What we know:
With 550 residues, the chain is an alpha/beta fold. The chain is built from 19 helices and 15 strands.
Amino acid sequence: MTPEELSQAVLSAVRASVEAGELSVGVPERVTIERPKNREHGDYATNAALQLAKAAKKPPREVAQIIAGRLAQVGGIASVDIAGPGFLNITVDTASAGELARSIVEAGEAYGRGESLAKLKINLEFVSANPTGPIHIGGVRWAAVGDSLARILKAAGADVSTEYYINDAGVQIDKFGGSLMAAANGRPIPEDGYVGEYINDIAREIVAQHAGLLELPDEEQKKVFTSTGLRLMVAEIQRSMEEFGTHFDVWFSEKSLHDSGAVDEAIERLRGQNHVYTDGGAIWLRTTDFGDDKDRVLIKGDGETTYFASDAAYYLNKRDRGNEVCVYMLGADHHGYVGRLKAIAACAGDDPEHNIEVLIGQFVKMVREGQEVRMSKRAGNIITIDDVVEWIGVDAARYSLARSSTDSTITLDIDVLTSATNENPVYYVQYAHTRMCGVERKAKELGIERGEFKPELLATEWESNLLGMLGEFPRIVAKAAELREPHHVARYLEELAGVYHRFYDNCRIMPLGDEPATDLTYARMWLADAARIVVANGLGLLGVSAPERM
RNA sequence: GCCCCCGUAGCUCAGCGGACAGAGCAGGCGCCUUCUAAGCGCUUGGUCGCAGGUUCGAUUCCUGCCGGGGGCGCCA
């Protein structure tokens, strides 16, 4: 019996009580079913009676009494107790609880998927760092979180596309090209230019690709350095992302918005909505109509469009491509953009509460030997994605970045994540998976096939706890998708791993010595296999490997 | 001055309206001729920053303060 089925049973009991005239309330659409922290409170608990008491004009315990009477009749429910102020504590039949293992094994990779976001076309834009240097640590956080979120949203049934916005227009790119040219010619890097070994590397590569380049006039050189540098840098970013297990469906060029006239078109569309005005020679969008703290310039007095104008065009482009929800993931230093991005949507006639979501990720710090690490070999004053991967590996990086809420600033301790591996929760979870695989190997070695499943044999507290945790997985995935918070999946896996380890240590699965396999052997094999599937599916949602051996 | 995030066990962090506040790690004491001990059991450890408010009920929601981090351009 799953939490979902239980929830339906409670609703049916409420409905029946209302129909019988014992309760006069509207039947709620859903009730909360939770696993109590304390085992003495049954397998599941609901506060439904507490919630309904006021409307029913009866004391909570009396409402509980009424619901409990009907609920106890439901097949699969062993008992219903009323506790505290009016909680219903529900105990499920052992056999009914054990059936879950069978359905998980049968569902396999599909277990945990749902339809809570079915038919929602959602676009995730993340990282989107300027292609003027390697991805830095903040971008790595979004690579881990954004990619995991994409996987989770897909699991919840959404139609997801992931996207990287390449800022390939504007003065930063110009400075990048200038810096490359300076480096290649042995001249000092211009003021506000880009420095670091990577600039020299790329400059060398460009010179190697273009014979005689340095003999050309500066103006022509710079064009080559800019365009080729951009291409090489984007290629490197794409390589880093793929190596990090992060895939983008679309690499969107800002320049293409200008070249195609989309920026001008966007301004005209916003003008048509009557939110555009001219002042001091500049053209403005009246974002203050929708909560922004000041209006924003679209076209400067000198006729140049602003970055903000590109943002507006880009948003409209995403919507034109059929995306119902556009999610932006930005660093904490860009939190000021939330208001203006939402205002763009509102000015365009969209619902800023629905069509656009902006997630803000706080900073990431790395420490080694108690000291903050700031330096990178390749990029001088920043830590790059390749540094992170080199120091702690993809699995540990993805997991440790995705296991915390993006609202928290996090500190990654390189020493912890490398030498003392058991201090890192990812290994705790992965180790649980290898133990599960170890059981399968042992079974194969002993020539034991999984026999008929008798779910009622899974009767110990460890088996019951494990079944309970496994049953939570679909709700955790749905919650993580709904809240756009992948870290719930990681936390769940850590808890599940703990419950599994305890089951493993207390419930021998394979026969010892010459003992024959029994029905209990088979039942536990089903359970262990179900647990393996859930851990593998969960790690898959985080883009972290589920190793068979460690 | 205004805006955003954080403040929970020694450390890193969960908990986002419910029952005595949790995990991992760290500290202490135990457990491997048996499916990997990267594990398990027991144990030490907390005025949930402070003060009010809303609620039957607040770590959770609201307000104010105090700490810490980050932002507020006709920059990109």
